[in-house]
Structure formats: structure tokens, C-alpha cells
Amino acid sequence: MTPSIVATREYKFFMDGEWRESRSGETIDIHSPYLPEVIGKVQAVSRVEVDEAIEAAHLAQIKWADKSLQERSAYLYKWADELVHMQDEIAETIMKEVGKTLADAKKEVVRTADFIRYTVGEAQHINGESMRGDNFPGGSKSKLAIVERVPLGVVLAISPFNYPVNLSAAKIAPALIAGNAVIFKPATQGALSGTKMIQALHKAGLPNGIINLITGRGSDIGDYLVEHPGINMISFTGGTKTGKNLAKKSAMVPLVMELGGKDPAIVREDADLYEAANHIISGAFSYSGQRCTAIKRVLVHENVADELVKQLRVEVENLTVGSPEDGNTVVPLIDTKSADFVEGLIKDAARQGAEVLTGNKREGNLIYPTLIDYVNTEMRIAWEEPFGPVLPIIRCTSDEEAVNIANKSEYGLQTSIFTRDINKAFALASKIETGSVQINGRSERGPDHFPFLGVKGSGMGVQGIRKSIDSMTREKVIVLNLS
Ligand code: NAP
Ligand code: G3H
After folding, report:
1. DSSP 53
2. Are the C-beta atoms of residues 95 and 325 closer than 8 Å to each other?
3. Which atom of ligand 2 is nearest to the CA of 291?
4. Total-model pTM
5. Topology adopted by domain 264-449
6. Which residues are annotated as catalytic?
7. From ligand 1's centre to the CA of 50, what distance in Å?
8. Please, where in the chain does CATH 3.40.309.10 lie?
9. What CATH superfamily is the domain 13-259+461-478?
10. From atom 18 of ligand 1, which residue's Cα is the shortest distance away?
């Protein structure tokens, strides 16, 4: 593959309406996960510049919140249009930077434009309420409370690498429409895609200071941003370890966190095994399992386990493997550390007696899709999130055992239940400790207006378009004392 013209371009950060080089004089090389080249450089923004950006955001936010909702909507609609215009360029950057196929990268951009438009529509239907004092015993009819939703101020949006555009815009759009200014810190591996997304927002003519793109390693500036007294709300998506650190560091600031997962697929004895296998394969292996909602373990009834495993194995062996540029499903993982981690989980399971049915081959960061049967609860793969193309099968003797193993996890993002018995499905769903339960379908985030949440180590608070707007606003009560 010939390096593209933009291959070694140095990107600027964006602050108070201007693209700038950092006064730190330092840049960070962004390597492609699958090409032997540096595909761009981003600025390592200094602490002083973080201070300046937050100050600019505060000043700009006051005027932004003062604009009518229709005015703010117009900017967001233009942003969505610009993203669609730039979809080829942005998708190519996503592909090169995070190793997603071009088709999936384009879907991500278009999904983001749809997300932004829906966010505007949703905000236009949010109304406050009024309350009369005499609804409460002894209260006076002459008191009238007017309850409105107002912005929080400056929102810090921190996003992960795997959906560098969609999961970033899923924070920025609700924040902006509600009248907040934003400090956006993309994942470093994802910062080029994030920069292109902000270029689209800049083209939409957003007033200076409302959106600020701060690039730099989380290990250098993450804590500084999170602890900054100028931040009024944090919306974070990333790993559980990073999220826990962030929760300890931030103080008295509303926090919404979407974190890791270990989503189980529970396959009952009465399931349609063909359907279940299809959903499980796409849930577990698309984009090499680098989705928070990927199916990361199968808890199958022992009476149908052989048949399910047989079908899964055929499908795993049919998965296409290789470069994202050729449209493969299983692609190189984001970096060597991630590939080492996944390899370690497979080795641990094999050493403890699990049967590795297929896969278990590695070329650089490319881990071949791996199916492991007879996994037990002593093995790390039963509990740890691989974020890679490996699927452990745990055979269970009953629904109760499956639910117990599902719930014993430190995570609680989603669960899939496969069964033909809808009553059983609901009975099991009510016992499952995850934010969402999918009946006869793979775990997944969308559609994006559904509430999306993790419990336990998988997060706090709720996203999903309406819920995200709610989380970035607060109630304000004005009491009218009528004479
Ligand atoms: P990560 O390593 O936790 O990084 C996430 C973000 O946090 C990045 O922007 C990172 O910046 C930043 N960060 C690092 N240290 C920080 C600190 N001390 N303070 C503040 N921010 C800091 O996660 P990832 O590898 O990008 O993403 C994979 C993980 O995210 C998986 O566990 C996956 O399940 C989870 N995820 C969850 C959801 C969900 O909706 N539940 C969605 C997507 C992904 P740098 O890149 O500069 O280090
Ligand atoms: O990685 C986490 C994303 O929120 C998953 O989204 O289920 O649409 O792939 P998805």
C-alpha cells in the first residue's frame, strides 16, 4: 500500500476557534495498527494550554447558552451535513488509525450524522414543568414553581479508540445542544479521526471557544483535566481501570462513565441454535471483538453445547482475516500490548485444560479468531475482557448456573439470552445484573436513542440521546410567589 499524501502530516489542536501548535513543542506520532508507518502527528498540549482552553470555554459558554435553541440547532445540523460531505476522508482516517474496514468506518460517520440530527430533534421536544404549592399538604396555591433544564457549563468529553468519531460526537452533540461548551480529549490512537470530526464542526461555523480539542496522552494530561476546577461535568468512555481512577480523582462533578464489559450470551436448551450462532459470531468477532458490547463469553446448556459449538466452529473458520483495507472481519488489534494480552488469556486457558478448537495463531498484532471450549471459572478468560477475537464457551447444567456465572462478573454491560420461550426469557432477564438484556439478539449499543448503560464495573449514569442531554443539564427552579 502506498503511503497517502497526509501520511506524516502534523495536526494542530483547536482552542478558542483557532488551530494551534502546542507551545510544549512536542508532538505524538500516531502509528497505524496495520501499516508500518506513522500516519500523522498530534500536539502534546501543555497544562497551561489546558487552562487557557477551559477559560475560553467558560467565556464562550455564557453567550452560547443565551442563543435560542433554534440557533444552536442550525450549527449542529450544519455539522452533521459537513460530516456527510467529509465521510470519505474521515472514514479513510478511521480505517488507517484504528484498523476498521472502510465500510464500517463510513457507517460510523453516517451514524454520527444521524445521531447529531436526532439529538437536535430530541432537544426540541424537551420542556420543563410547573408545580403549584398546594399539591403538598399545607402548601399555598400562590406559590408556583417553574422547573427548567439549564446547561452545566463546561463539559469534559473523553473518548476511547474504537469508535473515535461516533463515541466522541455522542458526548459533544448533547453537550452543545443543551448550551454547554466542550473540552474534548480524544483517545490518542483516535486523535486524527477526532481532529477531522472537529474540522467538520469548525466548518459549520461554531462560535469560538465552544468546542476545544485537547490532544495529548491521558497518562500526561488526563488527571490534570479531570481534576481541573473549571470542569463542570465529565462524560467518559473507556476501560474500567481508567474509569475507576477518574472517579477517584474527580470531586463534586457529575460523572457519566461507559466502561468495559464481559457480555455473556446465555443459550438455553430450547434456543434456535442456528440463529443464536449467527448472532454470537457477529457479536463476538466483528471488528475483532474490539467493541464494548462484544459477546465475550457463551454460557450454553450442556445438552445443546456440542451442536452449538459445532456451528460456531464452522462460522469462526469462515471469518475473513487480514487487513481492514480488504474488508476483513478480523483485523489486527489496536496495538502490540493488546495482542499480547489476548494471547496471554488464550495461553492461560489452554494451560488449564480448555480445548482450543480453532485459531490461536498470531501474526504481529493480528490474532486469528479463536474459539475455546470447556472453559471453567478458574480460567482468566472466564472473567477478563479480552477486547480481541477470542470466544470462550462455558458449559452449564441449568439456567440458574448460567445466571450465577453471568452475575458473578465484575462487569454489567449487556447480556444476550437465546431461547424460544419468551416467558423464560423475561424471567431470566429480571435476574440478570446488566444495564440491558437482549432477547434473541447480539449485544449492541444501538439504536442510539435507546438508553445505554452499564452497571457495576461497566459504568455509571446513562447515555442514549435523551439521557445524555439530561445528564448534561440540571434542573433550575424559579418560584413565583403570587400575591
Ligand atoms: P482507555 O485506555 O481507558 O482510554 C480511554 C480514554 O481515556 C482515552 O482517551 C485515554 O487517553 C484516556 N485516559 C487515559 N488515562 C487517563 C487519565 N488518567 N485520565 C483521564 N483520561 C485518561 O480505553 P481504550 O483502550 O481507548 O478503549 C477500550 C476500553 O473502552 C474497553 O475496556 C472497552 O470496553 C471500553 N469501552 C466502553 C464503551 C462503553 O460504552 N461501555 C464503549 C467503548 C469502549 P489516551 O488514549 O491518551 O491514553
Ligand atoms: O464499543 C462500544 C460501542 O458503544 C459499541 O457500539 O454495539 O454499536 O458496536 P456497537
Report:
1. H
2. yes
3. 1
4. 0.97
5. Aldehyde Dehydrogenase; Chain A, domain 2 (3.40.309)
6. 258
7. 19
8. 264-449
9. Aldehyde Dehydrogenase; Chain A, domain 1 (3.40.605.10)
10. 222
